[in-house]
Amino acid sequence: MIWIIIILIVLLGVILVGITAYSKQKFFDLEIALNEAENNLDIILEKKMELFHRLMSHMKKKKLKIDYPDIEQYKKLKDDHHALHNALFDVYTEFISIVEENEDKLKDEKSISLIDQLCDNEDDLIAVVKYYNDSATDYNYYINHFPTSLGAKFLRLEQLEFFKNEKRETFEILKEDTKQA
To answer: What would the DSSP string read from start to end of 69-92?
Structure first.
């Protein structure tokens, strides 16, 4: 009788170790994808800030009298991807309205080039955020579903937060005007 109990305990232990190893591998694979997305997000957000600086500098040279957003304050958010993404999305929205209000003064080739680069950057950002959110969805799924949920408890893993993923129809009026010209 004691042998049966010992065999059951050992068997249960082997099953738990197997589940934990399986779970660890699943989460490891997803963490690679999530880290890749975060690294790409860093690069794209940094480029976005640089594009904002270049566009603001160009607008100042064109002597547009507007209140420009303070981009420098967001450098301290570099390690908080979610906060930086949200803050720069708000700045991007501000730039959309600035460009729409001053479209007659921003029809030159350099303005259009900078605006196109900013739009392309936003498209890249949306793609990376989608990739991250898809990986985070899988990660959160495995945290909550058997058998990986047991491994997640042993590994003390927590659910991931998603990025807000919005796309704005940007600068369409300006693009249409340049096509007609």
So the answer is: ---GGGGGGTT-HHHHHHHHHHHH
